[in-house]
């Protein structure tokens, strides 16, 4: 039996494409008569390591334009348009180069997820091509013309690289500007002969006659979701829908032998380790993360925005260091309100020397007419009460630059349980305890106890309560040099090479962006998903529908994410999904999706054999 050769083109946009390409390649290479598989992509070789270990060959080439996302859930329309134009200017040369390479390796078939170049090159040399995807980029680029504007009211909506400057306002691109460009992408996809449609699909206009582009017409601007007509089409079996005609091979090649067709696919997802649902497997993974034994019985939140870098947070959630200096300024000894607020909140537990002088300065700068404190301790306590209240009313704020959590690909998230991280004054609801007895001594540690009480009120904004820990993914290589230990309490950093299916399997909830890779792994592991939406990426509408049917998905607004207000959504997701998650933990890894995937891989090989025969 002839050993077939596949060229598998994988988009470099996001890790979701790479993980499912690796999964299906692994299925192909696990067959009894395994084919030769070349993976062609600009995505890094590391993400294909599973299939490469089974014999896949890797070739790094830039074979598709990508949507520019300065943040995990923000699209830069103008930059994306520029990338598309530059790529299409070289399109014919790229197709010609890929055609020569396909002849060189004597390829029998091209698989694509979801690079149109591969389909066009396959057709030009007379071999069939197969799209394996839940969406195509003609729909994505077409959606840049939507009149719905990403007008987030986020106070922290900025790029991860401060040198790049703030994000530009979101402005729709006229479809008349996009149409001739999108048509070139659509024409490439039209060359494909088979669509293996993955779960979470949106319309694929290069295969189905309805709906047509532009893709903004598919979405109800009021509900910001697919129209009922589009949902109805997606739920209808593909065999009952009319397909667009086939694009013939160029002159000199035989006529195409099989009619165009669409087949629904099972979930393509990398399987977790077989032992991950056992106590041994769970402990082994938590060991690599550095979670101490006394915390391993806690519920786990995974924070992952997919394939980007976790930057060093600027401050620990609770500062345990000693005071470096007094409260007064070197020049005048008078306290600016922001300095007072920052110092009271960060230098917890430090002794307050010369308290009469400093409290007097505190009163003066807070703008209150309070008498200089006397030796009466009750009078001092009253002064603290009134002065802190004045700071609250004056709108004192903690410095965001020193109180943010940089999560991969997303804008900075506040750390609400940090003494320096809230976006409003920590004294807004401050209640001072009864006046101490005269024999007590008022020190700064007394104020520290008050701060701790306020902190306890704020505790749980990131995590629901002390029964949770969080594991953050996407650390840079020099994390230790950046001071990566400065994380909020109960937060841990996953190793850079952590196997995400295993991590998702032990998670009780996952927080991240709405993308296929994360959705598929959450559904497979029955892990509830709290997602931050991507309003300008049309794929998310199909993924939402899939989550509603097969898993648990709770939306967390961008502003809530960035304010560090995660706890309520995390708890809601946990409550909705804990029954299914508990059942999955008891069931363990069954290998069902691997079996289904190998069956589809065998059917694909038979399909290619039918072309050759």
Q: Could you characterize the architecture of this molecule?
A:
The strands form four sheets. The protein has a seven-stranded parallel β-sheet, with helices on both faces. A six-stranded parallel β-sheet has the order 14-13-10-15-16-17, sandwiched between helices. Helix 1 packs across helix 19 and helix 14 packs across helix 15. By secondary structure, the chain is α/β, with parallel strands linked by helices. About 24% of the residues have low confidence. The relative contact order is 0.13. The chain contains 19 helices and 17 strands. The chain folds into three domains: 287 residues, Rossmann fold (3-Layer(aba) Sandwich), CATH 3.40.50; 163 residues, Rossmann fold, CATH 3.40.50; 100 residues, no CATH class.
SSE layout and pairings?
Elements: E1 5-10, H1 15-29, E2 36-41, H2 49-53, E3 57-60, H3 77-89, H4 91-104, E4 109-113, H5 116-124, E5 129-133, H6 137-142, H7 175-190, E6 194-197, E7 219-220, E8 225-226, H8 228-235, E9 261-264, H9 279-289, E10 299-303, H10 337-346, H11 355-365, H12 377-393, E11 404-405, E12 413-414, H13 444-458, E13 468-472, E14 491-493, H14 500-506, E15 509-513, H15 516-525, E16 529-532, H16 539-550, E17 553-555, H17 558-562, H18 567-587, H19 592-612
Parallel strand pairs: 1-2, 1-4, 2-3, 4-5, 5-6, 6-9, 10-13, 10-15, 13-14, 15-16, 16-17
Antiparallel strand pairs: 7-8, 11-12
